[in-house]
Design goal:
Layout (H helix, E strand, L loop, with lengths): L3 E5 L4 H12 L5 E4 L4 H10 L8 E4 L2 E4 L1 H9 L3 H6 L1
Parallel strand pairs: 1-2
Antiparallel strand pairs: 1-3, 3-4
Helix pairs in contact: 1-3
Length: about 80
């Protein structure tokens, strides 16, 4: 399974939804909590091509996007192959 990184904040419902979907798929991921880390948020935004909202999700080094992007990928049947790569 590729490395999965989820940048999140503790109070974010979209972060919880994205992590729940990954957990439902049995995907292990590393969560980077930015709740009190403005420098980490800037680093995430740089890595995410300027996107500063959370969550931002990376699978195998590929930027997936946020919660809606992750769910759309799943709806198109493209998330499972990424998780198995």
């Amino acid at each position: 399974m590729p490395e999965i990184i989820v940048y999140s904040k503790s109070t974010c419902p979209y972060c919880r939804a994205a992590k729940a979907l990954l957990a439902q798929k049995g995907a292990a991921f590393t969560e980077i909590d930015l709740t009190t880390d403005p420098e980490g948020q800037r680093a995430m935004a740089k890595r995410a091509n300027g996107r500063s909202t959370v969550p931002q999700i990376f699978i195998g080094g590929q930027h997936i996007g946020g919660c809606d992007d992750l769910h759309a990928l799943d709806a198109r049947g493209r998330l499972d192959p990424l998780l198995k790569a």
